[in-house]
Amino acid sequence: NDASTKALVLEHEAALCDAAQQKQTALDALTAEHVASTEALIADHEAARADANRKRQTALDALKATDTTTTAALIAEHDAAIADVNEQRQTAFDTLKAEHAAALSDANHQRQTVLDTLVAEHEAALADANQKRQAALDTLKAAEVTATMALVADHETALNALTAEND
Questions:
Q1: pTM of the model
Q2: What is the DSSP string of 151-162?
């Protein structure tokens, strides 16, 4: 009976270890997805920034190449181009920020779902192990009672036999 109780304990511990490993694997996968998504958002932002810098440099080069009569017009175009680039940059940044927030929220939701599942599986495994342990204890108690009753009956039979011999 000690062996079956130990086996139940070992089975419970193995179930706990397996649940912890599944949890860590799920967390690692979610972390990798989050990092990849963030890196992609950063790369998109940097590309938009590089494009804005190229447009700015083109406008500056155009300003340097023209004579003073068109400088005012070029400055106005440059200012408009900068405003446009800044607006595009802000729009791209806002989009990236929203996509990042959505991806993070989704990853957190997935992580919570995995954690909830793992907790439920762990609790079910624990309840099952406790039920098996209780059944083993109940069986052990019943066997002990039966053995005790048999010993008492043997003792009474021996006592009766001794009493009969003495009479």
A1: 0.39
A2: HHHHHHHHHHHH
